[in-house]
Amino acid sequence: MPSIPSAPVEPVATLRAPVESIEWAELRHKQKEFKFQVVVQLVSLLGIAAGACWVGYKYFDDRTKEQELRNREVNLKLFQEKKEAYTALVNAATAVSLAANQEKAKGCAPDFFAAYLGRVHLVPALDEEVAEKKKDFARKLRLYLIQDPAVGPPEDFLKPELEALDKACQQGCQHCLDVETHRPAAAPAGP
Asked: Residue 57 and residue 65: Cα distance in Å, rounded?
């Protein structure tokens, strides 16, 4: 019987094993590189998303702060305008109320009516309560001026309306400051 040579079979098997292991090694290496690249890309995307979120947050936060600053500036300007106008109105009303008699009250009345019809109407966002109280004071002043001079000093006749006008003007100015600082309006003081 002839013998079957076994040598040629062995080298074929040894030749194929290294080729397969090299191909598998390269494939495993490519898979590892691919996984690493995917991880790097995901981390990059997460970084970009986080950066975009931060930029959006800062943009809207800065925008909100700028709007609040603009509102504060507008409210401060409004407060100053109201303060000047309301002060002139209350000072004129006080001068009329503190006059010694009806004749002197008639001399002070034009100053009140100038403030009543002029400066106060130029205030943007005139407070309703101030508008109402100044009308009440003007109505009462007109009644006083057409009465008999023996009625007495104007202070007795006009004091309640003057106090109401003064309080309304103070609250109107305070409202501007409350809006500016975002505080709730103070409760009115009890008697």
From this structure: 12
- What residues make up the domain containing 164? 70-181
At 87-133, the pLDDT tens digits run: 889 999 999 888 888 888 889 889 988 888 887 877 777 788 888 99
CA gap 46, 147 in Å, rounded: 84
Same domain, 114 and 83: yes
Q: Residue 6: inside a domain, yes or no?
A: no
Say yes or no: 75 and 169 in one domain.
Answer: yes
Q: What's the whole-model pTM score?
A: 0.60
Residue 31 CA neighbour count, 13 Å, CB half: 6
